[in-house]
Write a structure and sequence with these properties.
The complex is a heterodimer. Chain A is an alpha/beta fold. Helices cover 30% and strands 25% of the residues of chain A. In chain A, the strands form 2 sheets. A 6-stranded parallel β-sheet of chain A has the order 3-2-1-4-5-6, with helices on both faces. In chain A, a hairpin with a 4-residue loop joins strand 7 and strand 8. The longest helix of chain A is centred in the middle third of the chain and has 13 residues. Chain A is elongated. Chain A starts with a strand and ends in a 7-residue tail after the last helix. Chain B is of the alpha/beta class. Helix content of chain B is 40%, strand content 17%. Chain B has a 6-stranded parallel β-sheet, with helices on both faces. In chain B, helix 4 links the parallel strand 4 and strand 5. The longest helix of chain B is centred in the C-terminal third of the chain and has 19 residues. Chain B starts with a strand and ends in a 13-residue tail after the last helix. The relative contact order of chain B is 0.13. Classes of the chains: A alpha/beta, B alpha/beta. At the A-B interface, helix 4 and helix 5 of A face helix 4 and helix 5 of B.
Chain lengths: 223, 159
Amino acid sequence: MYIIVVGAGKVGWNLARELLEKEHEVTLIESDRRRYLTVEQELEHNVSYGDASELWVLERAGIQRADMVIAVTGDDEDNMLICQVAREKYLVDQIIARVNNPRNRQHFDLLGVKPSVSATDLILRLLEHEVPEYGLVHLLDLQEEQLEIIEMLLGKDSGLIGRRVGDLSMPEGSLLISVLRSGKGFVPTADTVLEEGDEVLAVLDPGKEDELKALFGPDGDSA
Amino acid sequence: MRLMFVLIVGCGRVGSSVARGMLREGHQVSCLDEDPESHARLEVGLEKSWEDLGGQFTVGAGLETEALVAAGIEQADVFIASTDGDNTNIIIAQIAQKRYEVPTVIARVLDPLRAEWYRRQGLQTVCPTKVAIDMLESAVRESAGRDGTPPPEPAAEAA
């Protein structure tokens, strides 16, 4: 594939290097002269100097034949604009945008700049995952499909310990899809009996989290 | 004349002048700028304070939803994006258009190529660079015309 990466910060530089190792054709565009000269020592002709929100800079980089544009500058407006132009003016099939401030994600969505990736969001999720008292961990949002996958830990106060999965009154629009117990995962049957410390994955319609959380009552305060 | 609520984001030389002009014409004017100091620029040449004259000023960035709402975007009839960043102006103008459905949205875009493309996508853009280019070119043509050579007709700008 031919991939244009915009922004040669830590993310962009490492991304370009990885993509080159996977034998993609890559152009990395950087607007800061000094940064460009540093990166150019390693990536040579694969890095190009210029402001990628200038249309002629994108055209010089061959955006007309690009399969993918990835905008990972430190500026959310720049990332939104570059991806919008890539898709709507140059008809690039795949775009990926970096969200620096998670509060700006709504604007990326509004302008149809998807998918967008936020490091802050990812770390927050990891944090939730590492802090089980949080009770409920968002694993995945399938926005288009209108589904979410969440993870819950059964604390010692959960009323579901010792209950059969078949006997649970799961809220409509939710389904248990797997149980992680002592480091091993399996798909539960109606006869699976839940134990303290089980980590349970469920798929659900958006907005069902509170009902599910109330049922599982993992951290005692919501049971 | 219908009195309008005009929201101006980016209160530099252009934004502050437009704000004063519109206030003088009797419109309701609200300004939003990241820099609290830009309030002082608004009051250049005014007898009374901006607020005493009926103006509104909010400190905040154009991408912050709370700041836009505090500055009155939900009531705005006209939205002007005149920060010093082309990309910022283009993005916040689209937010005003698509999310808040402000009837008239205008973005200042210095780069003629971006201004032209977004104009074709239905965003009203004002490009000071293009105005300067046109004026300089016509000044040269005028001078050439005085020497006896007929100036070529300027090509009509594609609509």
